[in-house]
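Support request, priority: normal
Reporter: lab tech (M.K.)
Component: structure prediction queue

Hi team, I submitted a job for Cohesin subunit SA from Carlito syrichta yesterday, and the status page still shows it as pending. I've pasted the exact input below so you can check whether something in the sequence is tripping the parser. The sequence length should be 1075 residues. Please let me know if I need to resubmit or if it's stuck on your end.
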Amino acid sequence: MFMKMSNSEIIRHLTEQFNEDSGDYPLTAPGSSWKKFRGSFCEFVKTLVYQCQYSLLYDGFPMDNLISLLTGFSDSQVRAFRHTSTLAAMKLMTSLVGVALQLSLHRDNNQRQYEAERNKGPGQRAPERLESLLEKRRELQEHQEEIEGMMNALFRGVFVHRYRDVLPEIRAICIEEIGCWIQSYSTSFLTDSYLKYIGWTLHDKNWEVRLKCLKALKGLYGNQDLTARLDLFTSRFKDRMVSMVMDREYDVAVEAVRLLILILKNMEGVLTDADCEIIYPVVYASNRALASAAGEFLYWKLFYPECEARTAGGRARRRSPLAQRTFFHLLLSFFVESELHDHAAYLVDSLWDCAGSQLKDWESLTGLLLEKDQNLDDVQESTLIEILVSSARQASEGHPPVGRITGRKGLTPKERKTQADDKVKLTEHLIPLLPQLLAKFSADAEKVAPLLQLLGCFDLSICCTRRLEKHLELFLQQLQEVVVKHCEPAVLEAGAHALYLLCNPEFTFFSRVDFARSQLLDLLTDRFQQELEELLQSSFLDEDEVYGLAATLKRLSAFYNAHDLTRWELYEPCYRLLRKAVDTGEVPRQVILPAMTLVYYSILWTLTHISGPSASQKQQLSLKDRLVAFCELCQSCLSDVDPGIQEQAFVLLSDVLLIFSPQMVVGGHDFLRPLVFLPEATLQSELASFLMDHVFIQPGDLGSGPSQEDHLQIEQLHQRRRLLAGFCKLLLYGVLEMDAASDVFKHYNKFYSDYGDIIKETLTRARQMDRGRCSRILLLSLKQLYTELLQEQGPQGLNELPAFIEMRDLARRFALSFGPQQLQNRDLVVLLHKEGIRFSLSELPPAGSSDQPPNLAFLELLSEFSPRLFHQDKQLLLSYLEKCLQRVSQTSGCSWGPVTTYCHSLNPVENIAEASLQSYPRSKRRRVEGPSKHSREDTSSFQEESLQVNSIPPTPTLTSTAVKNRHSLGELEEMEEEEGGSGSECAQGQPLTDTQLPRFSGPQHFQTPRNPSDPSLGNQLTRLNLMEEDEEELETEDESNEEWRDADKQPNSHSFPSEHGLDLLDSTELDIEDF
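Reply from support: The job had stalled in the queue. We restarted it manually and it finished. Here are the results:
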């Protein structure tokens, strides 16, 4: 081919033979073997050049023809040719650069040899040696010129055109290779004429190309010998490199930060304070790799220079006390003065990889906290304690803070060994000092709570072997003082959890810890009994007495959550207290809330005691009585005037009803069946009413409006999400009637931004449980919304109201929830349409009135489900609608808009002008002769013409397929018989065969009667025309912005596999995409 054809003819010939329909070629084909092809192909080009570098490379024919051929192919419109030839040309260029570098080194050696020989004396100089060196220099010069000519041809013929190719893979190849050229042969390529291509491509829209640019620049800025020649480039593109720290792709942002670290180290004074202030907030990013890179930049910018200035001796003295104190003071000042975040744990995690050894210097941390003459204010002390706790948790657990994403799955054996050693060192150091820290900061709840959490980072087993029991006794004393002194939930929960960690029967000091726990609970219980009697006997309590009782109840509630307090018998006194609160309303709110929690914990601990098969029936009946009494109390509290009491009652009811639901007998626990409790209808309705009043409320109903703090609004939203999630779990576990889900589903569209993920997951789970019932509930939700709007506004102009437009959006979202399984949902969608038609005509106007039925506008909502119908079902539903409309009288000449809209949704190719002239519905059924063959042909030709002229955008190509196992529509036949019809009109059909042709002709007018005995009807239902309907997609502004952002990304599909249990709604922070 090379001998007979020119390069252009070769390219044209191969282009004509190439099959572009496949789209795959070796560089992009899937499979492990093709993945290795790219590396092997590049290695082949490299080996070819190196094998020819002393002979054929300078022959003139092979390399020139190869370069010419690759240059031609790189300009081809065929993607495969252009991609492959560009890769080969760039790898060829890289190999030629290596050869040119070797030639340059040989020339330098030759020049030194020549100078050395020429500088010898007349008696020692060898003329033949000088002549051979001169000849060798000329030969190297010629080879160098030839190589430079080849490189120039490749650069100008391929790179200059392809670095801005439309294909991002080609652009990435060019940028990656030019980085290699500049780095390896800086003498020739490290100039602004080559660097500018990398600088320009920093703005590329594809993230992989931008990533290649940053990696190429890292190789240059990492070499101190080259940075002096990058001043002009840095001044021109520094702003762009700094801005790429905020790139939307985390990989690009990480490389940008690492590039700036190299610039910071090797080019002093280039990055200004304004540039650094852009990078500092990134230490609090959610992506751990990005935050860790920013933490390293922060360390080298702020911490390392100051710490090194206070270190006189190198690495051995780097951890001197002065340097460590300086490090922590700088860390404190950065966190407090920057005011970028409220939690120091994220800053500690960001610095852990580069400054972990300094952060694990717990001796310096505790020394700063315990010294008497420290110059730390209250905020700095709290921050330093948080840094201590965060570093201890990071060393003992190895997990990043909540919300920070990490791609690692586990620790290596070496990391696990380091983690175990750090845990032992932490325990040995802090166990003796923890009582002192608690004693010093015992008056401050914000400082005591994190200090108590330190016990969870200890290896308590070493306390049994290394004589640390005396320090534990001091800790227990301080713990008791803290619990008696504070009543804040965070302190009490931390104290109860710390005591729980120590109450392990396997520890040798368990008996002493258990005795201390008993002493503490005896003290709290006696105080509670005394204060309770005063409350029950007196008619008035002052504020101090109420505060004392509420504080005692909070302490007992916190410890009841972690410890079994059954032997202190707290149920009866708490129940009496709650009964008085319900009967008289004289008990203060701050007393009722912890009392309700105590009763709840008492019931749960009692359940754990009788969960075994050996439990007696008397015990089960006693627990059941307590459960029923508690539910009645909570039901009464749902109508309390205090919102806090209402929410607490709802949360406790949701949990206890879920625990004692029918699910508790699953897994071989049939002996617990007597404990199963299902709420009565009144309780179910009150739960639903509470949900409507406290969850589905507009933001303006929250109270203080614009002056309200943002974090308070977020907390209230989280609380409402928890309430909704609890209600949805009751629905899915069968505790509440599934029809109550309509109260949730009807708010799907209106509150989508707040609860869309929860409602969508509930809808998905409900459909998995029972598809038919779920579709009926969706229709019920629309009925309820329509009825409410009808009662408020009346039937006149109903479909023009904004609320009705919102209902249409909701119906469209419900329709999209059926998914692409059109055949699987066929019966359900048809039943939904029939039920909707009956509802729209369920109330008729007065006799002789020209008004339309009040529910007729519901047909417009129903039209949103029409794209989910098969073509033949649309035609048969038109017949069903005609039959229903015959019962309604109407003034001749008037048309009803909802009927027209619904009919057009079932028959999109209908002639609108001709349909509008018809009088529908007719009061009497006229007998119409069936259309002749000629008229059917005319109708068919008219519809074909209509499809060609009026359909915008063009209707997709029709495809037909035979369905062997068709879903039965028996339910429709039964409903037709109930309506008194002569036969099923929506379920009449025969099994489809491969030989029958689709013969569907949409009705010219929706009221044209059809003869059920017409043999053509059977032929119409023998094939399925799977035609994609033009659906109006539901797109919000946020979704549009997301599509714009991700326009240059590869399409990804995220799936959320459902778990075996129905506990996914335990988390109210779900990341589930829109329908």
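The beta strands are 960-961, 1024-1025. The longest strand covers residues 960-961. Let us know if anything else looks off. Ticket resolved.
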